Amino acid sequence: MNVLITSFGYLHGEAPEAHVTLDLRHHFRDPHVSPELRYMTADDRPVREAVLRTPGILPLIDATAAAVRAYQAGPSTGPVTVAVGCAGGRHRAATVARTLASVLRDESEGLRVVVADRDLSRPVVQR
């Protein structure tokens, strides 16, 4: 594997160790606040569309892809790890992680990108 991307929710535990960590909690609207999206996940199209329409998300994904390429260009070998977190790990983090993986795969033929959704299947956090 060349790149490991882990999505997670800060409310379920600490961020996994990574070269690059994205914290989406404070700057990007949480789909959890919309009752119709609350019990859905990044597996559902309405959630993905809501997250990807959020101002700033696509430039952040592009910037993160550039950071991954910079790590890969360095003199050391080994996988690059990216952690993408939001409150519960079911909406923003998982959508951004999967979209980042898709961008990286499209840019680099033969690049192995693995996505692990640590908290996607956990129950909705009631706030």
UniProtKB/TrEMBL annotation:
Occurrences of domain RapZ C-terminal (ranges): 1-120
Protein name: ATPase
Matches recorded under Pfam families: PapZ_C
Superkingdom: Bacteria
